[in-house]
## 1
Amino acid sequence: MGHLKIHCDGCGSDWIVYHRDDFHDWKARTCPVCGKSIDPGTWDRQVLRAFGEMEDANLELMKDHTQSHGTLFTVGYVPDVIFPNKENTEAVDQLREEVEDLKDGIDNLRSIVEKLINGVFQI
Ligand SMILES: [Zn+2]
């Protein structure tokens, strides 16, 4: 038996709903950090159903393993989010600024070298 891991993009937290927990209680579908909740209809119709199907698949895989003494496989699910590195936006912006500063520095050096080559500056 597995457990259900939920990610809240609102605050960036993850929480786990274990089998010992009441899946139909509002707490199961509510972020313990920021208090935002998954829609109760979506929770019942989609999330719990998908979790149950995944549980059944893993039970079948376990049965295959014990009957054939072959390799045990388990399946999980990794969501493909639209912006997986969203939290790194600030770091990317900072790097972009640094690159722009480096470009400006290179342009300044280039103009100094050109002036030196053209004899504007006397050393
Ligand atoms: Zn949250």
Note: Residues 83-123 form one domain.
## 2
Amino acid sequence: MFRNVLTEQANSTIIKICPPRYSGRMNSRETPILLKKVHSYLLAKSYDFAMRNTEKRCLQQWRSNLLSQARGNVLEIGAGTGVNLQHYPGHIAQLTLSEPDPQMRRILQKKNLTTPTIPVHITSWEIETTGMPDSSFDTIVSTLVLCSVPDLSRSLSEIYRLLRPQGTLLFLEHVASDHPQTLHWQRRVEPFWSLCAGNCRLTRDTAVAIQTSGLEIERCIEAPMAGTPSFVRRTIRGSARKA
Ligand SMILES: C[S@@+](CC[C@H](N)C(=O)[O-])C[C@H]1O[C@@H](n2cnc3c(N)ncnc32)[C@H](O)[C@@H]1O
């Protein structure tokens, strides 16, 4: 579906063993690194399978509606295994897919990226450190990523900086519950959940954070994400514009 694939390897760690294999004695410093690699490998390998039911029940429809609004030069952050690829409209000028996790990016790179119209560029950027100049993009897409970034307000400041005036952030995120009891459970489960699920936080008030960054929310739909545990169910999706 996509035309050109320029793969940027700068800043990326190339992991040659897949899955990482034990090769002799490890010291105490190597153990957590190896565990992190195994964890990242398992997460990436199981992601599409774990999400398949939710994708069918709601996410595919939401992604398609959301991404139909993408225009111009588009950056998708945390592109994961490339689940949004099929939903981009043919009229966008250029698509940059950034995915810092090497295992996720490996799966992304294997996707069919051939298109007659859209040049596609894959990078290893984290949103906080893209090194791109101000006002580089017309649209930035974040689906199920702002829950995982280490510092939400720093990431949103960077998104603000990278957007052109009148540029748009398209977001689809799970957020803190508005039911006190569920919120209570989210707080209790969060430390364990974030360890298992790639730093995914359950209690972020992402809509407020978006507005605090200076972006103006134009549209925001709240809906439960079908097929997920109650503590990740509440989602928001919509668009926010840079004035
Ligand atoms: C739950 S997955 C979502 C994947 C995909 N966007 C989707 O909609 O299914 C979260 C992704 O965010 C990425 N991520 C985490 N921290 C990031 C950061 N600081 N900058 C960019 N991406 C990040 C992870 O590597 C992971 O691929």
Note: The longest strand covers residues 163-174.
